[in-house]
Every structure is written in structure tokens, then in C-alpha cells.
Amino acid sequence: MTAEFSLAPSSLTDALYDSLRLRIINGEIAAGEKLTEARVSSEYSVARPTAKACLERLTAAGLLRRTAHKTAVVPTFGVEELEDLFIAREAVEKAAIERLSTARTVPQAAVHAQGAIEVAAEQLNFPDQVTADIEFHSALVDAAGSTRLAKMHSLIMGEVHLTMGQFQAQAHRATSPGNVVGEHAAIMEAIERGDTDGAAQALVTHLENARDRLIARATKEQ
């Protein structure tokens, strides 16, 4: 029997998007799996045009891929794509870190996310740690005061979310939970000191470690 999923009474398209995005990120809809208008329409009891609009939005966010006249598919990331993703992340997030360091400002949203990471690490709650990790980096970029920088970051965040969901929870298990907490703390402390070079280096080190864990996990699963 086909499963049916209920939607919150908000904007139907937004609710549908949020539900499908979460299922993709959590791996419930796995990498390589097809997602058709008919399937979405059936599972959620929505009209085909609504399903189509949502699939287009998920594709624009990088959570689905589809070529002309092809069914949308959850992408599978290889080593080269993961490396390229982290090149983009480093460029954007490093620019944000440098702006924050000049102002010696750590955004409260990042502080809150760091606290959530610490709690999740203590509880060995890897899904929550992944979510808080994403929120930490987004908070830094959003607080940098550049709308274009934030826009560039948002363009890759769909793929960032997807790789975190597909690999990062497992990749976090390859290191001590306190390592991620410590790496984030080093970034924040350097920002507060106004140490631009130190903050940038702390960020680069953190992203390189995350990249290496992801690539190791992706290589193991391929």
C-alpha cells in the first residue's frame, strides 16, 4: 500500500517542499532514487502542478537533478564533486569569516548553534549534530552583512545539506565528537580576538577535516 504523508496547514507548496527536503536529507529518499510527479502526487494527495512546482524547487536547490525530459533523481556525489563543493564552501565562508573578524563579532545564532552541537555531541546524537553544524556555518555567512555573499552561499547549501545528510552523520562517527566542537570554538575565539588570519586558518582546517572525513566515507560506500 502506498504511504501517505500529511502536510502542515501552511503554504501547500512550502510544506511539501519542507517535507520532501527533510526526507531527502535524512536519506529516506536515497541517493539515486527517482522522484516523479506521480509519486509525489500520490504520496501527499496533491495536484500534479503542485508536485511539479515542488520538484522544480528541489532541483533548483541542488537536492534533485534532472536533464531535459528525464525523471528527477537524488544525486550521488563522487569524490571530485565533494572536493569541488568544499572549494566553493571555503571561498564563501572564508570571506564571511574575514568580515566578522574585522568587526570582532560572533553572531548569536552561531553561538546558539554551537551550544546545540555541544549537547548533541555529549549525547552522541549525530543527526542533531549535523543539523546544528549546518546552522553554525549558515549563521556566520548570514551575519557577514553581504547579501551577495549570502546568496552565493545559499546556492550551494542545498548540496551541502545533502552531503551532510548522506555522509556527515556517518563521517562524524569517524572522529571524536569533541573535535567538531573544538574546531568551531577555535573559529569563534579567533573572530572575537579580531585575528583575521587565525580565524581564516581555523576555518580552513575545519573544512579540510570535514572534507577528508566525507571523502573517506564516500569512497568506502562506492
Description:
The protein is mainly alpha-helical. It has helices at 12-25, 37-44, 48-60, 79-103, 108-122, 126-142, 147-172, 177-193, 196-221; strands spanning 34-35, 72-73. Helix 4 runs parallel beside helix 8 (177-193), helix 7 (147-172) crosses helix 9 and helix 8 (177-193) runs antiparallel to helix 9. The protein is elongated, with a radius of gyration of 18 Å. The two termini are 32 Å apart.
Q: Topology, please?
A:
Layout: H1 12-25, E1 34-35, H2 37-44, H3 48-60, E2 72-73, H4 79-103, H5 108-122, H6 126-142, H7 147-172, H8 177-193, H9 196-221
Antiparallel strand pairs: 1-2
Rounded radius of gyration (Å): 18 Å
What summary fits the major beta sheet? 2 strands, antiparallel
Can you say what the CATH homologous superfamily of the largest domain is? GntR ligand-binding domain-like
Give the amount of beta strand, in percent: under 5%
Label the overall shape: elongated
In short:
The chain is an all-alpha fold. It has helices spanning 12-25, 37-44, 48-60, 79-103, 108-122, 126-142, 147-172, 177-193, 196-221, and strands at residues 34-35, 72-73.
